[in-house]
Design brief:
Length: 838
């Protein structure tokens, strides 16, 4: 852990915790960050307390220095007073910094994580607004905010040129990884954005790297001068080659779609090809309700501010619901669009500006909100960067949602009576995410682009889309027949029969392929030599289970119950949990449902349960079953709810993070106590309900034979098992490449677990991300797993992969894979070994 510590002092506890979380993500726990924020007053929690600041400084004190960042007003006074409570020798090591809270904290932790001294860390914090100012055009070019560039003429200089492939370029987290990597080496790293013709800047400065404004497709020149220059450049090149650990879906790359199309012939409309596929259907116009704003004087500005806060809170809940649903329909990576919308709603600068407008001008909440949203949208439109300009859609989307709630209007849902092609001026990301692909067969808009969030969502939902066509389509009568080809970017109004024939043939071929995949999804997954493998779903909400069943899930192999406990101020009651478990079991209609007991603590803390001390290594800490055995009230409440829900359903209990036999026995004793209490109260439950464990800790693998005699089934969690076997934090970019579930060391652990389970006569499944990787399917079949549990959207592909393989073939691949010396060689082996079905 870096020696410099950071303390965040704020009037708002929520703001401070949010800043800490954001900053901590940049350095993956390498820097000690303490928070002193808010006061213990339920009526008015905003304020600062000198004693709290003193305790925060003392908790992270370092002789190398403590940097204190404050928001405003009394925060500074509290910090100054807190220092006086410290011993004189320590007072000299504490530095109060006037840097902006959010930007300063991010810059400070990155500099501290890179090993900077207290003065370098302060300089980075103070210069933190420069990057934002540069990108907004407030300053024309990067200024020197840290020590100037010096060169060592005695050491040779090496250089490389790299094209940035990340979809969002070097945004905050990749920039932080770049700086952290550059700082590991003795050589001086300099970097220049050749595409934008910037100056050379220091690679170990987060502010200077961010001011380069690096976007996807930009070419960078990176130089290294020093004894380890080659090693430094190789490490940096590795980050780019690995996309900084981000998933770049080629489908969503704008270059995959044609921005220029062939000139339209008679009867055609040409536009931008945004989502492939053919649609032929009547048109239906969609005109989202635009909220008109009237500004008026208010006598009670505090009441208006409360109205706005209430609308924002409701908007947050709505967006979280959209985010949850979108995660399942379009995947976590694309659903992050709505995560960004949540951050917009929580932007302290924006909220402060709206609050100030209401107070200063005595105007209504709608007018104040609209003004600040317009201001943000205008600043985005002024940027030269086209990607950032397109984020205006998200700003407007969020803005309109809050205005709708302030006006008391219900959400506008598009309900089509019959399948149609949607014609509109534009669609917001929220509009698009809510579309039903069985009713909306195509999208045709007069604006938009292939890189807009709406286009990305349409592609992921599989809805053909042609954007940017002539505005004449807005005048078509509902019911007019239209055809569109999302691959070529063309649309036809009342197309001629020859066009219809060509498109119908293309559409039929596409639909046949889709139907085959869907049909396979609802059939058992059986290998070519007759072995059936169960394919279950991993789910994390009631919504997920609907999608899982529709995708062909044969049951739920992992219900993550954490969603019931997070984002609330107290633990869920027994009745709340019972209703959710029963609702999920009802949808499954007697398919198996494996409920994992609460898996929080460590890296997933519950805000309403005080841990009492920070954990240096949360992944090795107080989590999973360890946490539950220390919170028996919480644990028993959950077990009661699961047992009560088990009547008439095929429910099983699964215990997470088991590392000893003692833990299993202790949990079973508690389960027995709960069963006795229910019997005493004459409450029914399934007395034969099976109990299993997650195998995700190496010790559980080592004693799998002993554990197998205690439980009814195993489920291997390869996400955690991989990082524990490889002693590598999968969230740490410096070592994340080591965390590969296809590494022979991990595969041998899986093999040992399966053998122990089968020797004891119990079943064993796998619910880690590896199960959804169809490249790994032959390995998992060859290892003898009885069940694979994956995200719902992966089920059809996994079932198809199983049907193409044989157990004999898979066992042969496994025998060779276990003898390989790296995950790369295992992948090569699989790619060259799989034969086509006879």
């Amino acid at each position: 852990m870096a020696a410099i510590a950071i303390v965040i002092v704020s009037h708002s506890k929520q703001l401070a915790l949010g800043v800490r979380e954001l900053a901590a993500q940049m350095v993956q726990g390498q820097v000690a960050i303490a928070v002193a924020a808010g006061i213990e007053d339920s009526e008015n929690p905003l304020g600062t307390d000198p004693i709290q600041v003193y305790e925060a400084i003392a908790s992270v004190f370092s002789d190398d220095g403590v940097l204190v960042l404050m928001d405003l007003g009394s925060a500074l006074l509290s910090a100054e007073m807190a220092i006086e409570f410290l011993p004189e020798a320590q007072q000299e090591k504490v530095y109060l910094c006037e840097a902006p809270l959010v930007e300063g904290a991010i810059a400070a932790v990155v500099a501290a994580g890179a090993g900077g001294d207290i003065h370098q860390v302060m300089a980075e914090a103070r210069g933190a607004l420069l990057a934002k100012a540069t990108q907004l055009g407030v300053v024309s070019r990067p200024l020197s905010v840290v020590s100037p560039i010096t060169t060592n003429i005695e050491s040779p200089t090496r250089e490389i040129r790299l094209i940035v492939s990340n979809r969002l370029g070097l945004h905050a987290r990749p920039a932080a990884q770049f700086v952290a990597t550059a700082a590991r080496f003795q050589s001086q790293i300099l970097v220049q954005n050749l595409t934008r013709n910037t100056e050379l800047v220091r690679g170990d400065s987060i502010n200077q790297v961010t001011t380069l404004g690096v976007r996807q497709g930009d070419e960078l020149l990176i130089t290294a001068t020093g004894s380890d220059a080659d090693e430094a450049l190789a490490a940096l090149q590795g980050l780019f080659a690995n996309n900084f650990g981000e998933d770049n879906v080629a489908l969503n790359h704008p270059s995959a779609f044609h921005h220029k199309v062939t000139p339209a012939t008679h009867g055609e409309l040409s536009g931008i090809a945004a989502s492939g596929g053919v649609a032929i259907a009547p048109v239906v116009h969609y005109q989202p309700t635009h909220i008109a704003i009237t500004e008026y004087h208010v006598d009670n500005p505090d009441a208006e501010w409360q109205r706005l806060q209430a609308a924002i809170n409701t908007a947050r809940q709505e967006i979280q619901a959209v985010f949850s649903q979108a995660s399942l329909q379009i995947g976590d990576a694309e659903a992050a669009i709505f995560d960004a919308q949540l951050l917009f709603l929580e932007d302290p600068v924006l909220l402060s500006a709206a609050h100030q407008r209401i107070l200063d001008n005595h105007i209504n909440a709608e007018a104040a909100w609209q003004a600040v949203v317009d201001q943000v949208a205008t600043s985005y439109r002024a940027l030269e960067d086209s990607y950032l300009q397109e984020r205006v859609d998200d700003v407007v989307d969020v803005g309109q949602r809050v205005l709708r709630l302030l006006a008391g209007n219900a959400a506008a849902n598009l309900h089509l009576e019959s399948p149609a092609i949607l014609v509109a001026t534009d669609l917001t990301p929220s509009d698009t995410a809510g579309l039903d692909p069985t009713k909306v067969l195509g999208i045709c808009t007069t604006s938009g682009s292939a890189t807009s969030h709406s286009a990305i969502i349409a592609r992921t939902l599989g809805i053909p889309a042609v954007l940017g066509v002539d505005a004449q389509v807005l005048h078509l009568a509902d019911g007019t027949l239209m055809a569109l080809d999302g691959e070529s970017g063309r649309a036809w109004v009342e197309p001629e029969s020859d066009i219809l024939d060509l498109l119908a043939a293309k559409q039929e071929a596409w639909q046949t392929a889709q139907q085959e995949a869907q049909a396979t999804a609802h059939q058992p997954a059986i290998t070519r030599d007759g072995r059936q493998v169960s394919v279950f779903a991993n789910i994390g909400s009631i919504n997920d289970v609907q999608v899982a069943v529709a995708s062909g899930a044969e049951g739920v192999g992992l219900l993550r119950t954490e969603f019931l406990y997070l984002d609330r101020i107290s633990a869920p009651t027994e009745e709340e949990q019972l209703l959710v478990y029963q609702a999920i079991a009802q949808v499954l209609d007697n398919r198996p449902l494996i409920i994992r007991t609460l898996d929080v603590g460590g890296d997933k803390p519950l805000p309403y349960l005080k841990v009492g001390f920070p954990e240096a290594n949360p992944f090795l800490g107080w989590r999973g079953i360890r946490f539950c055995l220390d919170h028996l009230d919480l644990f028993k409440t959950q077990l009661r709810a699961i047992l009560r829900a088990s009547v008439g359903h095929q429910i099983k209990i699964m215990l997470p993070m088991i590392s000893t036999v003692t833990e299993v026995r202790a949990a079973k004793v508690i389960l027995g106590e709960v069963q006795a209490e229910l019997n005493q109260a004459a409450i029914s439950f399934d007395a034969a309900m099976k109990v299993g464990i997650m195998v995700e800790v190496p010790s559980a693998v080592a004693i799998a034979d002993q554990l197998a005699t205690e439980v009814d089934f195993f489920s291997i969690g390869t996400n955690d098992l991989s990082q524990y076997v490889m002693a590598s934090d999968r969230t740490n970019p410096r070592v994340a490449n080591l965390v590969d579930a296809l590494h022979p060391a991990v595969l041998r652990m899986v093999q040992q677990t399966v053998q122990a389970a089968h020797t004891a006569g119990i079943s064993v499944g796998l619910c880690g991300e590896l199960a959804a990787d169809t490249l790994a399917t032959p390995i998992l079949l060859g290892l003898g797993l009885d069940e694979l549990s994956v995200n719902p959207q992966s089920i059809p592909g996994v079932k198809q992969a199983i049907a193409r393989l044989s157990i004999v073939e898979s066992e042969a691949i496994v025998a060779s894979a276990l003898q390989q010396d790296s995950a790369e060689h295992v992948r090569e082996l699989i790619s060259t070994s799989i034969t086509s079905p006879a």
